[in-house]
Every structure is written in structure tokens, then in C-alpha cells.
From TrEMBL:
The keyword Protease applies. This is ATP-dependent zinc metalloprotease FtsH. It comes from Methanimicrococcus hongohii. SMART domains: AAA. Keywords: ATP-binding, Hydrolase, Metalloprotease, Nucleotide-binding, Protease.
Length: 435
């Protein structure tokens, strides 16, 4: 028996149980099985699932299904392959026997713990209910449909078919599925205040209905403030992964057009775009690019129009009504208009990391890198460095080690990297000191 056998039997069991049990929904299907079954029109995996040879080939790359279903040279007793139609299924009346067989195989347990449909069966349907398997727990770990690329593609497809210019709108933002996001919360070192804000954001999302019921619609607008390289973008993306909702990333420089009327239209378009992805995070980077103090600019009247459009768009977007969690990020606090500030219900500060945080950031980045270095000592030497600066230092150190034919880092590599970083940023400062 090979893992191919388990792949096929797992699929057949999943299909059979999913078809039979009314309680099971699309989010209970593991993503590897869900992807090829996804119907972008209905954004669902319709019942019944009817496995077949083509599906199995697409899903697992298995060409010889009969071969995969042989155990010690004999065909698996509880499945039938229809030679004519290519359909493959559990033999009528054999679900329990097939499931019992499956459970005894090596590696089956890991599969059950990643497959809510199977977990449901073994914990509450089968004769011998397994008290060590919790359907709720397995289901809560399975990424929901909104976390998948297919979900986003379905919405994009609909946008392109519509009468509007949906395709055009897509140029105004980057849209990522949580499963494509590389950043993760456990690689970010946060202050207590930031952790607290994170909790509040999560609670606001989970209790959307509660906020609607008590008439508080003004939640879910968050402003990230801090110098470049302090983790604002990473935080927003990691949040998308943590909450399993897509992230629509907007750079205000991208939607600013030389024709100001067009800029205002783009602002409206990009907000309309985000609302199509309900639920999602709309992340507006370089927020100060437009939302600058209205009096401080030469092209006064024109800019004012764009700012007003932006403010109106923010007012007309709601987590409760539209499912859009709005996060804006800015490097400059001073440039922002008072009217802009008022629109955010939470302000999260991103400061340069403290000594302890710098050590933690270094330790986190170095987790995957060989070598034995004193990160506390490096943290002491890197006052005022941002998280991004520390990453650059380590990258430099890794390159230095490679020049010396080493994959392992030594203290000297890091010391050198810090020195060269200091020298470089020193140069930068004198060059721009006139500014
Ligand atoms: N607090 C932090 N903890 C861990 N890594 C950090 C932190 N702040 C920044 N970084 C790292 O620095 C890099 C740049 O961060 P980024 O999120 O782009 O900053 P910003 O958007 O504020 O300019 C990322 O790779 C990130 O992992
Ligand atoms: Mg950024």
C-alpha cells in the first residue's frame, strides 16, 4: 500500500461522507481536495461530489487509479471503478467498513486531523465514536474558502463579466489570498500595546453582528503610524493570514492620476473593489500621499477635491455593513489633517523597537539560519534600527559568510554588517541633511 492508495481512499470517503451529511459545508473540505472541485459561479462545492479518474489525476497526479487501489496486488475491496464512465466510489453499503480500514493505516490519523469531514465522521457518525478526535478543533484549523486563491479568482471572474469596468479596477490594487501571504504574526515582535490592539481588531470582526445590533457602525477603521520598516505592511498581511480573509492592498501613489478628476474616480473605484471582496482587509499604504494637510499644498483646490473624496469613501465604508476592515498606514503623523484623524477608531503606533525587542527580532530572523551568535550584544549596538534595518544587517552578514564559503554565521559577520550599515546610513544622513 502506498500513500497514493490513502490519497484516493481519503477522497472517496470525504466525498461519500460530505454527500450524506447535511451538516457538512464547503469549509469542511480540506483545501487540497476543495480546489479542483470549486465552482466559481456558486462559490461552493456542490453536493454530491462525484469522484472520477480525471478528478483524481488532477488532484493527486495519479494516472493509474486501479493500480493505486491495489493492496498487496489485490483490488481494494470497498471501492469500485467504473471502467466505462471512469467514476470511482465507495461500494454501496461499505462506507463503515472502508472507514474502519482507513483508520488503521499508517499516517491515517494525521490525515483525519487535517480533514474536518473525516473528523466529523469518526467523532460522531461511526459505530465506534472516537473521543480523541474533535471535529470542532479540526474544522477550526481548516482554512475557510475565503482564504483560498479560488475564492478571489471567482470574484475577479464576476467583476470581469459585469457591465462595469471590473478588470480595470484590478489595476488599482493588489489582491492576495491568505494562503499566499508569507508574513505571519509569530514572526513579528509586537509591543504590548500592539498586541492589545490586535486583540481588539479580532474581537471587532468576530462580533460584527453585536456592533450592528447595538447601533455602533463606526468600527473597523485602523490607522498604523510609524517610521518606514517598523512592520506596518507585515502586520496587515499577517492579519489577513490570521483571520483568513483576503487583503486588498492599495498604494495611493498607484491611484493618483495626473488628472485629478481621475484620481477621485480611482478612489471611488478602489473602495468599490474592496467591497466586492467582503470579507476583506483593505490596506491603504502611503496614506499621507493624499491625505495631507489641506492647507499645506500648492495645488490647493485640486488636492482638496481628492482628499474630500477619500474622506467620503472612508465614511461610506463599514466593517459592519460591507465586511471591509480598513487599515491605513502612514509614516508621517504631522502631515495628516485633523479631519482624517477623526475617522479612525483605533490608532496603532509602530515605534522603533526597544533593546529587548531588537534582540527578539534578531532571534526570530536567525531561527532558520545556522550559527551561534550573541544577539543581545548586537541588539545593544543597534539603537534606532528598525526591524527592517535588522533584517538588512542579517542579510549582509549571511552574504559575508557566503563570501567566506560558510553557511553558518559567526559573531564577526554580524559585527561587520552593523558597522557597514552604520557607515551607510551615516552617509545617507549627511547627503540629505539639507532637506
Ligand atoms: N517588529 C518587527 N518584528 C519582526 N520583524 C519586523 C518588525 N518590524 C519590521 N520587521 C521586518 O522588516 C521588514 C519590513 O517591514 P514592513 O512591514 O515592510 O515595514 P513598514 O510597512 O512599516 O515599512 C519586514 O520583513 C519585517 O519582517
Ligand atoms: Mg510598508
Amino acid at each position: 500500500m502506498t500513500s497514493e492508495t490513502l490519497d484516493v481512499v481519503e477522497l472517496l470517503l470525504t466525498a461519500e461522507i460530505y454527500n450524506e451529511q447535511d451538516d457538512l459545508i464547503v469549509n469542511d473540505i480540506p483545501s487540497k481536495i476543495r480546489r479542483p472541485l470549486w465552482d466559481s459561479k456558486t462559490r461552493n462545492v456542490a453536493k454530491p461530489i462525484k469522484p472520477g479518474k480525471t478528478m483524481i489525476k488532477n488532484m493527486f497526479g495519479i494516472d493509474d487509479v486501479e493500480g493505486a487501489l491495489k493492496i498487496n496486488g489485490k483490488p481494494f475491496a470497498y471501492a469500485v471503478v467504473d471502467a466505462y464512465t471512469g467514476s470511482v466510489r465507495i461500494t454501496a453499503g461499505s462506507l463503515d467498513a472502508a472507514a474502519e480500514w482507513f483508520k488503521k493505516q499508517e499516517g491515517a490519523r494525521d490525515r483525519i486531523l487535517e480533514n474536518p469531514v473525516l473528523a466529523y465522521y469518526y467523532s460522531s457518525v461511526s459505530e465506534e465514536k472516537d473521543g480523541n478526535i474533535s471535529y470542532e478543533e479540526v474544522a477550526s484549523k481548516n482554512p475557510p474558502k475565503e482564504a483560498s486563491r479560488e475564492w478571489i479568482e471567482s470574484i475577479i471572474e464576476e467583476l470581469s463579466e459585469g457591465k462595469g469596468n471590473g478588470r480595470e479596477w484590478l489595476k488599482l490594487a493588489y489582491i492576495k489570498a491568505p494562503e499566499e501571504v508569507r508574513e505571519s504574526m509569530d514572526e513579528l515582535i509586537l509591543t504590548e500595546r500592539q498586541k492589545n490592539e490586535l486583540q481588539k481588531i479580532e474581537l471587532a470582526i468576530k462580533n460584527k453582528e453585536h456592533f450592528r445590533n447595538i447601533g455602533l457602525y463606526d468600527i473597523g477603521k485602523v490607522l498604523f503610524v510609524g517610521p518606514p520598516g517598523t512592520g506596518k505592511t507585515s502586520f496587515a498581511r499577517a492579519l489577513s493570514k490570521k483571520l483568513s480573509i483576503p487583503i486588498v492592498e492599495v498604494h495611493l501613489s498607484m491611484i493618483t492620476d495626473q488628472y485629478l478628476g481621475e484620481t477621485s474616480k480611482n478612489i471611488d473605484r478602489v473602495f468599490a473593489l474592496a467591497k466586492k471582496f467582503d470579507p476583506c482587509i483593505m490596506f491603504i499604504d502611503e496614506f499621507d500621499f493624499i491625505a495631507t494637510s489641506r492647507t499645506a499644498n500648492d495645488e490647493h483646490a485640486a488636492i482638496k477635491q481628492a482628499v474630500n473624496t477619500l474622506l467620503k469613501a472612508i465614511d461610506n465604508t463599514s466593517l459592519v455593513e460591507d465586511g471591509v476592515l480598513l487599515i491605513a498606514a502612514t509614516n508621517h503623523t504631522k502631515k495628516l489633517d485633523e479631519a482624517v484623524w477623526r475617522r479612525f477608531d483605533e490608532i496603532v503606533d509602530f515605534e522603533r523597537p526597544t533593546l529587548d525587542m531588537r534582540k527578539e527580532i534578531l532571534d526570530t530572523i536567525l531561527r532558520k539560519i545556522e550559527g551561534n551568535v550573541d544577539t543581545a550584544a548586537i541588539a545593544k549596538k543597534t539603537e534606532d534600527y528598525t526591524g527592517s534595518d535588522l533584517r538588512m544587517v542579517i542579510r549582509e552578514a549571511v552574504l559575508t559568510a557566503l563570501l567566506d564559503n560558510r553557511y553558518e554565521l559567526v559573531q564577526e559577520d554580524l559585527d561587520k554588517a552593523v558597522k557597514s550599515f552604520d557607515r551607510r546610513s551615516g552617509l545617507k544622513m549627511t547627503a540629505f541633511i539639507e532637506e
